[in-house]
Specification:
The complex is a heterotrimer of chains A (339), B (510) and C (315).
Chain A lengths: L5 E12 L7 E12 L3 E5 L6 H9 L6 E3 L4 E4 L2 E2 L5 H7 L4 E4 L3 H4 L6 H12 L4 H14 L5 H5 L8 H13 L5 E5 L7 H18 L2 E6 L2 H7 L2 E6 L2 E7 H6 L4 H8 L8 H6 L26 H5 L5 E3 L2 E3 L15 E2 L3
Parallel strand pairs in A: 3-9, 3-10, 7-8, 8-9
Antiparallel strand pairs in A: 1-2, 1-4, 1-5, 5-6, 10-11, 11-13, 12-13, 12-14
Helix pairs in contact in A: 4-5, 4-7, 5-7, 7-8
Chain B lengths: L1 H17 L7 H4 L9 E6 L17 H4 L7 E3 L5 E3 L2 E8 L2 E6 L13 H12 L11 E8 L2 E6 L6 H4 L10 H6 L1 H6 L7 E7 L3 E6 L13 E6 L3 H9 L5 E2 L8 H4 L4 E6 L4 E6 L9 H10 L2 H9 L4 E2 L21 H10 L5 E7 L3 H17 L1 E7 L2 H10 L5 E6 L5 H9 L13 H12 L4 H18 L3 E6 L2 E6 L2 E2 L15 E2 L2
Parallel strand pairs in B: 1-10, 1-11, 15-16, 15-17
Antiparallel strand pairs in B: 2-3, 4-5, 5-7, 6-7, 8-9, 9-10, 11-19, 12-19, 13-17, 13-18, 14-18, 20-21
Helix pairs in contact in B: 10-12, 15-16, 16-17
Chain C lengths: L1 H29 L4 H6 L5 H11 L5 H13 L13 H36 L4 H15 L2 H15 L15 H35 L2 H8 L4 H38 L5 H11 L2 H29 L7
Helix pairs in contact in C: 1-12, 5-6, 5-8, 5-10, 5-12, 6-8, 7-8, 8-10, 9-10, 10-11, 10-12, 11-12
Classes of the chains: A alpha/beta (339), B alpha+beta (510), C mainly alpha (315).
């Protein structure tokens, strides 16, 4: 693993939501990872594990009701994005960091022409005039494989298929040449054949533009195909972080192990694979004292129930477990990553 | 067929879109250079339907017709006959009335108002098509010379003279009618002090001073504008803001907001229109005299007047107000709940239900509530049945499906008309066609008493005594106060007992 | 394509006009009360009544009467008032012109203020203007229009003397006079609409703000204001267009109270007068024109809708 320059670093991210009359929901608890320049990091976990909240917190796009603990930090170019003023954050959005979403059916405004929506960010950030912005947009959607770009820019979203719309989303997100692209389940809503095409395009453009990607997914197939590094989240926490090859070769966390070994059903969503692990996820409103995975774990001990395992370095990889699948390192040799 | 539809549709849309583009103010434009003080603006409750006096039946029309049409006979504020277009009249015998006309009167179109014109108008008023029934006694009209006309009657009728102060006496230009009889309906041509300039139906009527009016110096205002405002509060508001100069029929309870200020003059008058219960005597349970008598004696009119008019009107125990020349001093209080109850008990009719149709107005609802309360005391159960005006008239007068109807008798210039219409068995208003021989012979006697008003008043006293205290043919309730208000610079107003103001006398001091 | 749509709509309008006019015609004749009786009053002898009924055509069967009316109406003749003899189309059009101006002003006021309040309250949630918007939307529906009319009158005409208490001046005669004469009545009339529009616009904006494309807009770096103006309003206004269309019809029917209080000779007054007098000819004309206006407004609503939403195509 070659050492690269760090682009974004998430330290100790803790996010919660509180509604009057209800107990506090701990949505994200202790998330730590980094993204290097030019790297594709996959953020994996089942729905509700906090991966979307984590992703949205980078751009400050979480609902106003979601708050962060004061020690949380998202470092980007020496600034803590969580502390950034709204104005500064807006300058970042769509410019240095952009994002694409799960469902291309709803991510585009149905009442605006594609061209208008695409050039919006350019006009916002790059002081371009409408004509050049439009030319840029044309070039960009040609690059994502849309033919007849001139005509397509004058179309409305409803005139495009789902795959086409996601291509538009990708082109739109990359138009300002961002350093980081956050892709939140970009292929989940698409047909399998289209999925492959979209991933292909993303990968090509990533190399061409040298953009880092944070890929949020629960599909391990997508992870294997795309990612350089994998961050596994469970119940609001990062439970394992590793190089993609290392992870697939030997998962350390029993949860990751469960994910990889469960048999996928033929027509099933990948979500079902995860839920094939018996037991249920603890509610974010009443997290256990010890390990969050305790209820479902095959390797649990009393210690797991009493003490919360922290993310620790485990032979060059990070895992949060008292009893990793491979017991290569003794307890006292572990270095706590979290302080 | 389809094309026609679309054409219609197209026309409708186009017209709807360009609707107000066509203004109807062009004619009024001619009046705009008139100085402010030369124009009097009146707010009045209702519009009329036609300017042809022989085709109308609403009592509210007169005030809008008077400025246009002078009548043969006029009346003073006590409803006594005064010279009009006829300077004097004389009964040559019981059935011949001679009218001597004013010289030099012309209609608005320049034609002469002479004996021929009068005969033409009177014959028109008595023709088949005319709605006027006041001249039923007239057999023929004889033109003696240009300024003398004789009415030959089939039978004596003491009300004929004042009938000539009503619709029948409104003289219309013969030339105008012969040119276009339909035109008269929309733009009357008379010999009155004002000419009609514009009639914006339901909105306003604009009259301009007739320069050749026979009465030199009248009218004093150049323009008379009558705005139609059905809502009494609206009339009051408009007066308060100075948008109008004169407002009619204001609510008794609300005029205090005007009386505080020096800017307004309020005049309260009393008039002949009477609120009453019409009874269909042919219909149960009102065919029982005991029930009718209980109604007559069981209602405390003074209390009723206090409650609904704040004491400003007058309780009614007869169809004439106390200031009227035929008022019967003895019929001033029939309220006697003990007697009413005794009558009912004797006839074993305690608890009888009387259905009364009434208008769905707040005023009428209040009256019904009070009646229900008062009559419950003596053993009559009032069942009020709200019906809007035409439905009520239909139900009571035409279908005769309700036994009683609370409405208004609008009054007539001559008491003989009122007495005949309320008491005679052949009258439209006597729905049960019930009367007594005595009453009818008294009515005939009064009709023949053409030169002795005192005697006539005595006869009416007697009819009212029998008809109300013994027979209870109808139940008078109250006289509404007749309240008008005007800004203090408006002069010339004289209330009249008919309750139909003549706006042509209004003017402003410069 | 649009022409075809237009033709189709017109073809659909024709049976609707037939049906509504026929239904109204039958209902009118079923109202108790006889116009002949109303005209004749005390002179209503059986003979006179029969003669007048024949003259007015009331002695014929319902179908014959409708047919007579219809065949005249088709060539643009709506007949004459039973009472005043004035031409029905002239009366109806001049009155409709007044009401149309009044209602349109009320709608414009309701729309402009309603949407503005909703947008501003969306931009500054929890601010005084947000509270004010909420107050307006509650008060507007809670206060009946006649009460509001009287309140406005008492303050702006009777006390302050700023605006006239009665009357109407056409926009085409005197624009300033028009505004002065129409301001209070149209506010009284439009208050309910303003409340409805504020409420609908507000909830539509909230709904729009929960959509993914708004998140996309934010992710591009747009400010709240930009997002509202570029992505929120047009999307949120769609349901409001429907509200406005419905409101038009409602207000057309609701003007009579306001017309009475301000003494405005509009179609509402005419309709009530015709009903009271049983002036069937006039009433039928009023209803026909009302129906046509409502149809035109529905039609206009559809067109505006299609202009705002490219997904709707008329084919």
């Amino acid at each position: 693993m070659s050492k690269r320059e760090t682009l974004l670093e998430i330290n100790n991210l803790r996010a919660f939501a509180e509604k009057t009359g209800e107990p506090r929901s701990q949505l994200v608890n202790s998330v730590n990872f980094r993204i290097d320049k030019g790297e594709i990091v996959a953020l994996v976990g089942e729905s509700g594990c906090g991966k979307s909240v984590t992703a949205l917190s980078i751009l400050g796009l979480n609902a106003a009701s979601i708050e962060y603990e004061s020690e949380s930090e998202i470092r980007f170019h020496d600034e803590n994005l969580l502390q950034l003023s709204d104005r500064k954050l807006r300058k970042l959005r769509g410019n240095d960091i952009s994002m694409i979403f799960q469902d291309p059916m709803f991510s585009l405004n149905p009442l605006k022409k594609i061209g208008k929506q695409m050039t919006e960010a350019l006009l916002q950030h790059k002081a371009a005039d409408v004509r050049t912005a439009r030319q840029d947009a044309e070039k960009m959607i040609e690059r994502v494989g849309i033919t007849d770009p001139k005509r397509q820019l004058d179309n409305y979203p409803y005139q495009l298929s789902g795959g086409m719309r996601q291509r538009v989303m990708i082109a739109m997100a990359l138009l300002c040449k961002p350093e980081l692209l956050i892709a939140d389940e970009p292929t989940t809503a698409l047909d399998v054949t289209i999925q492959a095409q979209i991933l292909e395009i993303m990968k090509d453009l990533q190399q061409e533009l040298d953009v880092s990607i944070l890929l949020i997914t629960h599909d391990l197939g997508v992870v294997a195909e795309m990612a350089d590094r994998v961050v596994v989240m469970y119940s609001g926490q990062v439970v394992e972080e590793a190089d993609v090859y290392a992870l697939f070769e030997q998962p350390l966390h029993p949860y990751t192990n469960g994910l990889l070994t469960s048999v996928p059903t033929l027509e099933g969503e990948s979500d079902e694979r995860i839920s094939a692990i018996r037991g249920t996820v603890p509610s974010p409103q009443e997290l256990p004292k010890g390990c969050n995975f305790y209820d479902r774990c095959t390797r649990r001990t009393d210690r797991c129930k009493k003490e919360e395992p922290l993310l620790t370095n485990h032979g060059g990889r990070n895992v949060a477990c008292w009893h990793p699948v491979v017991e290569g390192v003794k307890d006292d040799e572990r270095t706590a990553i979290r302080n | 067929m389809r094309a026609a539809h679309q054409m219609l549709f197209g026309t409708v849309i186009l017209s709807a879109l360009s609707l107000a583009g066509c203004s109807n103010d062009e004619r009024v434009g001619a009046t705009s250079e008139v100085k402010e003080h030369e124009k009097v603006i009146v707010a009045y409750s209702t519009d009329l339907n036609t300017f042809d006096p022989v085709f109308g039946s609403a009592g509210s029309d007169h005030s809008l017709l008077y400025p246009l049409y002078d009548t043969l006979v006029s009346f003073d504020e006590d409803l006594l006959p005064q010279p009009g277009l006829a300077e004097e009249w004389e009964y040559l015998n019981d059935t011949t009335l001679e009218l001597r006309l004013r010289d030099g009167v012309t209609f608005h179109d320049g034609s002469v108002m002479d004996g021929e014109a009068v005969a033409f108008n009177l014959e028109r008023a008595t023709s088949e098509e005319s709605y006027i029934s006041d001249l039923n006694a007239v057999e023929s009209v004889e033109v003696v010379n240009d300024l003398t006309v004789r009415l030959h009657l089939q039978y004596p009728d003491s009300s004929i003279v004042l009938a000539l102060a009503d619709r029948a006496g409104m003289m219309v230009s013969q030339e105008a009618i012969e040119q276009n009889p339909d035109q008269i309906q929309r733009a009357g041509v008379g010999a009155g002090p004002y000419e009609l300039v514009a009639w914006e139906t339901g909105e306003k009527l604009t009259y301009r001073k007739f320069d050749d009016y026979w009465n030199e110096g009248e009218p004093k205002a150049e323009i008379l504008e009558i705005q139609v405002m059905p809502n009494q509060m609206t009339r009051m508001n408009a007066l308060q803001t100075g948008e109008i100069d004169f407002a009619t029929s204001l609510p008794a309870g609300e005029i205090t907001s005007l009386s505080d200020e020096e800017k307004f003059t309020i005049v309260e008058g009393s008039a002949v229109p009477v609120n009453m219960l019409y009874l269909n005597i042919a219909s149960a349970p009102l065919d029982q005299k005991a029930v009718r008598l209980a109604l007559q004696h069981g209602i405390d009119r003074a209390a009723l007047n206090e409650a609904i008019h704040y004491g400003q009107g007058e309780g009614a125990y007869q169809p004439f107000p106390s200031s009227y020349w035929v008022y019967n001093d003895e019929l001033n209080n029939l309220y006697d709940p003990d007697y009413a109850r005794a009558v009912l008990e004797e006839a074993d009719l305690v608890g009888t239900v009387v259905t009364i149709a009434h208008y769905p107005e707040a005023y009428d609802e209040r009256v019904i509530d009070i009646l229900r309360h008062q009559l419950a005391e003596i053993g009559i159960v009032v069942n009020g049945q709200a019906m809007e005006i035409q439905a009520g008239i239909s139900a009571y007068f035409d279908e005769k499906s309700v036994p009683s109807f609370m409405s208004r008798w609008t009054g007539r210039p001559d008491p003989q008309m009122t007495m005949t219409m309320l008491y005679h068995s052949t009258s439209y208003y006597n729905t049960g066609s019930y009367s007594t021989e005595e009453i009818e012979s008294l009515l005939a006697e009064a009709a023949g008493t053409i030169d002795n008003p005192e005697r006539r008043a005595e006869i009416y006293d007697e009819i009212n005594r029998i008809g109300l205290t013994e027979e209870a043919i109808f139940i008078p309730l109250t006289f509404q106060p007749d309240i008008v208000a005007m800004s203090t610079d408006v002069k010339g107003y004289e209330p009249n007992m008919l309750g139909k103001p003549k706006f042509q006398m209004l003017y402003k001091e410069p | 394509m649009f022409l075809r749509f237009l033709t189709k709509r017109l073809l659909y309008v024709i049976p609707m006009l037939f049906i509504t006019t026929f239904i109204v015609f039958s209902f009118i004749l079923l109202i108790p009360g006889d116009p002949a009786l109303a005209i004749l009053g005390e002179n209503a002898s059986d003979e006179n009544l029969a003669q007048l009924r024949a003259q007015l055509g009331l002695d014929q069967s319902l179908l014959v009467q409708y047919w007579n009316w219809l065949t005249s109406a088709l060539v643009g003749d709506l007949g004459e008032s039973f009472f005043t003899g004035e031409s029905v189309q002239e009366a109806v059009f001049s009155r409709m012109g007044i009401t149309f101006q009044l209602v349109t002003t009320a709608i414009v006021i309701a729309f402009v203020f309603g949407t503005t309040l909703a947008i501003v309250s969306m931009m500054k949630p929890g601010s005084w203007i947000d509270e004010f918007a909420r107050l307006v939307s509650t008060m507007g529906t809670a206060i009946p229009n006649f009460l509001l009319a009287m309140l406005l009158l008492a303050v702006f005409s009777l006390s302050l003397g700023w605006l006239p208490a009665t009357g109407f001046i056409s926009l085409f005669d005197d624009p300033i006079g028009f505004v002065r004469s129409v301001l209070l009545p149209s506010i009284a009339l439009g208050a309910v609409g303003m409340a409805q529009i504020t409420r609908h616009m507000r909830s539509a904006l909230i709904e729009v703000f929960e959509t993914d494309y708004i998140r996309t807009a934010f992710s591009k770096g747009l400010s709240v204001r930009q997002t509202i103006f570029h992505h929120g309003i047009r999307n949120a206004i769609l349901p409001v267009v429907t509200t406005v269309g419905i409101l038009y019809g409602n207000l057309m029917g609701a003007t009579v109270v306001v017309e009475t209080i301000f003494s405005i000779p509009g179609i509402g007054q005419l309709a009530v007068d015709s009903i009271m007098q049983r002036d069937f000819a006039m009433l039928q004309g009023v209803v026909l024109v009302m129906v046509v206006i409502i149809i035109v407004i529905n039609f206009a609503t559809d067109i505006i809708y299609s202009l705002l939403d490219p997904r709707i195509k008329y084919e």
